[in-house]
Amino acid sequence: MSSKSYxxxxxxxxxxxxxxxxxxxxxxxxxxxxxxLVVVHQNYRATYKEFWDQTTQVAKAILAAGVVKGDxxxxxxxxxxxxxxxxxxTARIGTIMVNINPANKLADLEYVLNQxxxxxxxxxxxxxxxxxxxxxxxxxxxxxxxxxxVIMERDWDKFIESGQKITxxxxxxxxxxxxxxxxxxxxxxxxxxGFPKGATLSHNNILNNGFFIGERLYYxxxxxxxIPVPFYHCFGMVLANLAITTHxxxxxxxxxxxxxxxxxxxxxxxxxxxLYGVPTMFIAELxxxxxxxxxxxxxxxxxxxxxxxxxxxxxxxxxxxNMTQVAISxxxxxxxPVSTMTFADDRLDKRVSTVGTPLPxxxxxxxxxxxxxxxxxxxxxxxxxxxxxxxxxxxDNEADTRLAIDAAGWMHTGDLATxxxxxxxxxxxxxxDIIIRGGENISPREIEEFLIRHEAISDVHVIxxxxxxxxxEVMAWVKKKEGMELTEEELNSYCKGxxxxxxxxxxxxxxxxxxxxISGKIRKxxxxxxxxxxxxxxxFNQFKGNGNNE
Length: 550
Known about the structure:
Blueprint: E1 6-8, H1 20-30, E2 35-39, E3 44-47, H2 48-64, E4 72-76, H3 81-92, E5 96-100, H4 106-116, E6 118-123, E7 126-127, E8 130-131, H5 132-140, E9 148-151, H6 152-162, H7 168-177, E10 183-189, E11 197-202, H8 203-216, E12 224-226, H9 234-245, E13 250-253, H10 260-269, E14 274-277, H11 279-286, E15 301-304, H12 311-320, E16 325-331, E17 338-341, H13 348-353, E18 357-358, E19 362-367, E20 381-387, E21 393-394, H14 398-404, E22 411-419, E23 425-430, E24 435-437, E25 440-442, H15 444-451, E26 457-467, E27 471-480, H16 488-495, E28 507-510, H17 524-534
Parallel strand pairs: 2-13, 4-5, 4-6, 5-10, 6-9, 12-13, 12-14, 14-15, 15-16, 27-28
Antiparallel strand pairs: 1-19, 2-3, 7-8, 10-11, 11-21, 16-17, 17-18, 19-20, 20-22, 22-23, 24-25, 26-27
Helix pairs in contact: 1-3, 2-3, 2-6, 4-5, 8-9, 10-11, 11-12
């Protein structure tokens, strides 16, 4: 066995070597009468045959709008059945779907429209307090993009009808021209500094990633997967949709956005076998007052990902929600996204303390960030990944692409990790997320995992805040369990003698929630900015904007 922190995912099945459209056609022919998509809040159901026919209608409508192969089609909406139809329709005709965050405001939207030069924008009327129609009108005052827009609630039927002038033969000819190495999707990474970058992904990238995720969860055509995570993010459209359709299983969408009790109700009513979520979602479900009302006996698996998964939360998901085969996955948008993942039948300690092993045909190594050399096993360093999953590049941004992917094809993640003697990887922090206090490097993750074991703590996130004396001090934002009391004094006493003195938070903040992206990732950069302001430490902030990669 090599002593180096390097691993290659062995595969027993070959890469698919087909486009998303070709794969869906094959699945439809195999399982035409299986339910493909159920969207509870829209009272929508479709078998694979019905789903295929509807993607045909949408593909023709897009072509009728003057869109040609290679053009960008934006999708701006929460989780709706139209979103899924657009995902597969655009793939069938070689157009490039651009995912737009439902939380985007005017400046965000203008940037995405102009950076990717969106030809056609398909959007809902709005989401939560955002009026998309009004925002789009304002954007058009300053931009020539999009060339055309379709508002789902207002224009959908007319849009579909317009596609009737495209013949089956025309559609078939275009589909035949699509190659699996061509771009199919642009996803903007919601970084904490600078402008977002458009990770450009191919059919080969995301179709194979979805397929091997489904394989690791042992999906079959009998599985029904509850999807409360957003489609605009890789978690929704790859780990969920593509992992599901490559196996003839069923996509089950409970609501437009996450509502914990609706998820629980949907799991029972639709007899779901799998459930996805970020840790904050699972925590909200487990702590819901009506949690015990619902039946979880059909569940067996699922994925918890998107941010570090507290060990105690994972254990409760396995025991209380019957998800004995729940998996953890790790990756980033630029790698389609999953690089490593636990197996559904991995032993318990591996499934609660690591992010698994590489998916088939993916290489992973851990390097010394300063020298670039591979470090020995059980040694901390930067995780890098290489293989079919690495993006084509950032859209129209060669400079940042070269910074992210080196000459040998390795994607540098910026995440700190270790590889154990069994070949399992653990994420221990981000290079930029490390707190440096008086020369001591402190991992927030290490402190978080210690604090989450406290009986009164529901969730906790640790950050570094500015310090004139030490450069940075440790601060913890703590969410208490409902009905529990907790003080700073009690927490200091809990830490004393258990963790190194320099790791004990100097500052504590009790909160009901955390700043987060719509996909459920904690925005630590925002937490730092809020805390520095509240503590009157802004003038000492040497690390403003130096946050985790959200």
